[in-house]
């Protein structure tokens, strides 16, 4: 039972996120020889206000 974790910055539409998850499921089914029903995708959105780069807060610049 594959579990795929995706982390990305907030700001994408629901349609974009759903399309991404569908494509990920299709890729796992194709390459891992598993059924579509067994694939779980967990998408976590990261707030731009909770992001630093090289130790510096970048907030809305991300």
UniProtKB/TrEMBL annotation:
Keywords: Isomerase. SUPFAM superfamilies: Tautomerase/MIF. GO terms for molecular function: isomerase activity. It comes from the Bacteria. The keyword Isomerase applies. Pfam families: Tautomerase. Residues 2-60 form the 4-oxalocrotonate tautomerase-like domain. Belongs to the 4-oxalocrotonate tautomerase family. This is 4-oxalocrotonate tautomerase. It comes from Trichococcus patagoniensis.
